[in-house]
Amino acid sequence: xxxxxxxxxxxxxxxxxxxxxxxxxxxxxxxxxxxxxxxxxxxxxxxxxxxxxxxxxxxxxxxxxxxxxxxxxxxxxxxxxxxxxxxxxxxxxxxxxxxxxxxxxxxxxxxxxxxxxxxxxxxxxxxxxxxxxxxxxxxxxxxxxxxxxxxxxxxxxxxxxxxxxxxxxxxxxxxxxxxxxxxxxxxxxxxxxxxxxxxxxxxxxxxxxxxxxxxxxxxx
Length: 220
What we know:
The protein has helices spanning 33-42, 58-65, 86-94, 115-124, 137-140, 177-184, 193-200; strands at 2-7, 27-28, 31-32, 48-53, 70-74, 101-105, 108-110, 128-133, 144-149, 152-158, 167-169, 172-175, 207-210, 215-217. The chain is α/β, with parallel strands linked by helices. The strands form 3 sheets. Strands 1, 4, 5, 6, 8, 9, 10, 11, 12 and 13 form a 10-stranded mixed sheet that branches. Strands 2-3 form a two-stranded antiparallel ribbon.
Protein backbone atom coordinates (compact mmCIF):
# COMPACT_ATOMS: atom_id res chain seq x y z
CA UNK A 1 0.00 0.00 0.00
CA UNK A 2 1.13 3.54 -0.86
CA UNK A 3 0.43 6.73 1.08
CA UNK A 4 -0.25 10.22 -0.25
CA UNK A 5 -0.02 13.07 2.27
CA UNK A 6 -1.22 16.44 1.02
CA UNK A 7 1.06 19.26 2.20
CA UNK A 8 0.56 21.88 -0.49
CA UNK A 9 -1.67 24.35 1.35
CA UNK A 10 -0.45 27.75 2.52
CA UNK A 11 -2.17 27.77 5.94
CA UNK A 12 -2.93 31.48 5.77
CA UNK A 13 -4.94 31.26 9.00
CA UNK A 14 -1.68 30.48 10.79
CA UNK A 15 0.25 33.49 9.46
CA UNK A 16 2.88 34.63 10.36
CA UNK A 17 4.03 31.16 11.52
CA UNK A 18 3.53 29.69 8.06
CA UNK A 19 4.98 32.52 5.98
CA UNK A 20 8.36 30.78 5.81
CA UNK A 21 7.62 27.30 7.16
CA UNK A 22 4.97 24.87 5.87
CA UNK A 23 2.30 23.90 8.36
CA UNK A 24 3.31 20.23 8.28
CA UNK A 25 6.80 21.12 9.49
CA UNK A 26 5.68 23.29 12.39
CA UNK A 27 6.24 21.83 15.83
CA UNK A 28 3.44 20.58 18.05
CA UNK A 29 4.34 19.45 21.56
CA UNK A 30 8.02 19.17 20.70
CA UNK A 31 7.71 17.32 17.37
CA UNK A 32 7.01 18.31 13.80
CA UNK A 33 3.37 17.72 12.86
CA UNK A 34 4.45 15.51 9.98
CA UNK A 35 6.61 13.38 12.30
CA UNK A 36 3.51 12.10 14.10
CA UNK A 37 2.02 10.82 10.84
CA UNK A 38 5.26 9.38 9.45
CA UNK A 39 6.06 7.49 12.67
CA UNK A 40 2.59 5.96 12.75
CA UNK A 41 2.83 4.95 9.08
CA UNK A 42 6.16 3.21 9.63
CA UNK A 43 4.44 0.80 11.99
CA UNK A 44 1.99 -0.07 9.18
CA UNK A 45 4.79 -1.03 6.77
CA UNK A 46 3.83 1.26 3.89
CA UNK A 47 5.62 0.61 0.57
CA UNK A 48 6.09 4.30 -0.19
CA UNK A 49 5.09 7.66 1.22
CA UNK A 50 4.39 10.49 -1.21
CA UNK A 51 4.17 14.12 -0.11
CA UNK A 52 2.50 16.62 -2.42
CA UNK A 53 4.02 20.06 -1.80
CA UNK A 54 3.65 23.48 -3.33
CA UNK A 55 6.68 24.96 -5.08
CA UNK A 56 7.32 27.52 -2.35
CA UNK A 57 8.11 24.86 0.27
CA UNK A 58 9.29 22.08 -2.05
CA UNK A 59 12.95 22.29 -1.01
CA UNK A 60 12.05 22.21 2.69
CA UNK A 61 10.10 19.00 2.19
CA UNK A 62 12.96 17.52 0.14
CA UNK A 63 15.33 18.23 3.02
CA UNK A 64 12.89 16.72 5.52
CA UNK A 65 12.45 13.60 3.37
CA UNK A 66 16.14 12.67 3.10
CA UNK A 67 16.75 9.03 4.11
CA UNK A 68 13.06 8.51 4.92
CA UNK A 69 11.84 6.64 1.78
CA UNK A 70 9.59 9.60 1.00
CA UNK A 71 8.92 10.97 -2.48
CA UNK A 72 8.09 14.68 -2.80
CA UNK A 73 5.98 16.04 -5.69
CA UNK A 74 5.91 19.75 -6.54
CA UNK A 75 2.47 20.98 -7.64
CA UNK A 76 3.99 24.17 -9.10
CA UNK A 77 2.01 26.72 -7.10
CA UNK A 78 3.83 29.58 -5.38
CA UNK A 79 1.15 31.32 -3.30
CA UNK A 80 -2.35 30.95 -1.90
CA UNK A 81 -3.61 32.95 -4.88
CA UNK A 82 -2.45 30.41 -7.48
CA UNK A 83 -2.79 27.19 -5.44
CA UNK A 84 -4.38 24.34 -7.36
CA UNK A 85 -6.52 22.94 -4.53
CA UNK A 86 -6.31 19.81 -2.40
CA UNK A 87 -8.48 17.73 -4.74
CA UNK A 88 -6.27 18.51 -7.72
CA UNK A 89 -3.20 17.84 -5.57
CA UNK A 90 -4.63 14.41 -4.80
CA UNK A 91 -5.08 13.62 -8.50
CA UNK A 92 -1.49 14.76 -9.08
CA UNK A 93 -0.17 12.61 -6.23
CA UNK A 94 -1.96 9.50 -7.55
CA UNK A 95 -0.67 9.74 -11.12
CA UNK A 96 2.09 7.12 -10.81
CA UNK A 97 0.35 4.89 -8.28
CA UNK A 98 -0.80 1.43 -9.34
CA UNK A 99 -1.63 0.09 -5.89
CA UNK A 100 -4.05 0.57 -3.00
CA UNK A 101 -3.45 3.98 -1.42
CA UNK A 102 -4.04 5.69 1.90
CA UNK A 103 -4.73 9.42 1.49
CA UNK A 104 -4.65 12.09 4.18
CA UNK A 105 -4.19 15.77 4.84
CA UNK A 106 -1.11 16.81 6.81
CA UNK A 107 -2.88 18.78 9.56
CA UNK A 108 -5.06 16.20 11.32
CA UNK A 109 -3.64 14.13 14.17
CA UNK A 110 -5.39 11.12 15.67
CA UNK A 111 -5.27 9.68 19.18
CA UNK A 112 -5.43 6.17 17.68
CA UNK A 113 -3.22 4.45 15.12
CA UNK A 114 -3.99 4.49 11.42
CA UNK A 115 -3.42 0.73 11.54
CA UNK A 116 -7.04 0.34 12.73
CA UNK A 117 -8.27 2.03 9.56
CA UNK A 118 -5.92 0.00 7.37
CA UNK A 119 -7.04 -3.27 9.02
CA UNK A 120 -10.67 -2.29 8.40
CA UNK A 121 -9.94 -1.78 4.69
CA UNK A 122 -8.08 -5.07 4.32
CA UNK A 123 -11.08 -7.12 5.53
CA UNK A 124 -12.75 -6.93 2.10
CA UNK A 125 -10.65 -4.30 0.26
CA UNK A 126 -13.49 -1.88 -0.47
CA UNK A 127 -12.44 1.78 -0.69
CA UNK A 128 -13.10 3.40 2.68
CA UNK A 129 -13.46 6.76 4.39
CA UNK A 130 -13.24 7.66 8.06
CA UNK A 131 -16.19 9.28 9.78
CA UNK A 132 -17.56 10.23 13.18
CA UNK A 133 -20.84 11.57 14.57
CA UNK A 134 -20.88 15.35 14.96
CA UNK A 135 -23.62 16.98 17.06
CA UNK A 136 -22.63 20.60 16.43
CA UNK A 137 -24.52 21.86 13.37
CA UNK A 138 -22.05 24.67 12.67
CA UNK A 139 -19.11 22.26 12.72
CA UNK A 140 -21.01 19.93 10.41
CA UNK A 141 -21.36 22.68 7.83
CA UNK A 142 -17.57 23.03 7.70
CA UNK A 143 -16.91 19.40 6.79
CA UNK A 144 -17.89 16.70 4.35
CA UNK A 145 -20.94 14.67 5.33
CA UNK A 146 -21.64 11.03 4.53
CA UNK A 147 -25.02 9.31 4.31
CA UNK A 148 -24.67 5.71 5.46
CA UNK A 149 -26.63 2.50 5.08
CA UNK A 150 -25.03 0.35 7.76
CA UNK A 151 -21.34 0.75 6.84
CA UNK A 152 -21.86 1.62 3.17
CA UNK A 153 -21.62 5.20 1.93
CA UNK A 154 -24.69 5.95 -0.19
CA UNK A 155 -24.37 9.73 -0.33
CA UNK A 156 -21.85 12.49 0.29
CA UNK A 157 -21.80 16.29 0.24
CA UNK A 158 -18.85 18.57 0.83
CA UNK A 159 -19.67 21.34 3.33
CA UNK A 160 -23.39 21.61 2.51
CA UNK A 161 -25.40 24.64 3.66
CA UNK A 162 -28.10 22.26 4.85
CA UNK A 163 -26.81 19.10 6.51
CA UNK A 164 -27.64 15.76 4.93
CA UNK A 165 -26.22 13.67 7.77
CA UNK A 166 -24.55 13.91 11.16
CA UNK A 167 -21.63 11.77 10.00
CA UNK A 168 -18.67 14.10 9.50
CA UNK A 169 -15.80 12.97 7.28
CA UNK A 170 -12.24 14.08 8.07
CA UNK A 171 -9.53 13.83 5.35
CA UNK A 172 -8.54 10.17 5.75
CA UNK A 173 -9.38 7.80 2.88
CA UNK A 174 -8.16 4.48 1.48
CA UNK A 175 -8.74 3.82 -2.21
CA UNK A 176 -8.30 0.42 -3.82
CA UNK A 177 -6.23 0.16 -6.97
CA UNK A 178 -9.22 -0.13 -9.32
CA UNK A 179 -10.90 2.97 -7.90
CA UNK A 180 -7.75 5.07 -8.15
CA UNK A 181 -8.09 4.81 -11.93
CA UNK A 182 -11.50 6.48 -11.64
CA UNK A 183 -10.07 9.35 -9.60
CA UNK A 184 -7.12 9.85 -11.94
CA UNK A 185 -9.57 10.12 -14.82
CA UNK A 186 -11.57 12.98 -13.29
CA UNK A 187 -11.69 16.24 -15.22
CA UNK A 188 -12.25 19.69 -13.77
CA UNK A 189 -11.11 21.66 -10.74
CA UNK A 190 -11.37 20.17 -7.26
CA UNK A 191 -10.49 22.60 -4.52
CA UNK A 192 -11.06 20.26 -1.57
CA UNK A 193 -10.53 16.58 -0.87
CA UNK A 194 -14.21 16.19 -0.10
CA UNK A 195 -15.11 17.38 -3.59
CA UNK A 196 -13.36 14.28 -4.94
CA UNK A 197 -15.45 12.01 -2.70
CA UNK A 198 -18.61 13.84 -3.76
CA UNK A 199 -17.71 13.26 -7.40
CA UNK A 200 -17.00 9.53 -7.12
CA UNK A 201 -19.50 8.42 -4.45
CA UNK A 202 -21.86 7.10 -7.13
CA UNK A 203 -19.07 5.65 -9.28
CA UNK A 204 -17.23 3.45 -6.78
CA UNK A 205 -18.10 1.38 -3.73
CA UNK A 206 -17.30 3.14 -0.45
CA UNK A 207 -17.40 1.93 3.13
CA UNK A 208 -17.33 4.04 6.29
CA UNK A 209 -14.94 3.38 9.17
CA UNK A 210 -16.28 4.80 12.43
CA UNK A 211 -13.37 6.42 14.24
CA UNK A 212 -12.53 4.70 17.56
CA UNK A 213 -11.04 7.91 18.99
CA UNK A 214 -10.61 11.62 18.51
CA UNK A 215 -8.74 13.83 16.06
CA UNK A 216 -7.03 17.15 16.44
CA UNK A 217 -7.41 19.50 13.47
CA UNK A 218 -4.30 21.70 13.45
CA UNK A 219 -5.51 23.56 10.38
CA UNK A 220 -7.78 25.79 12.47
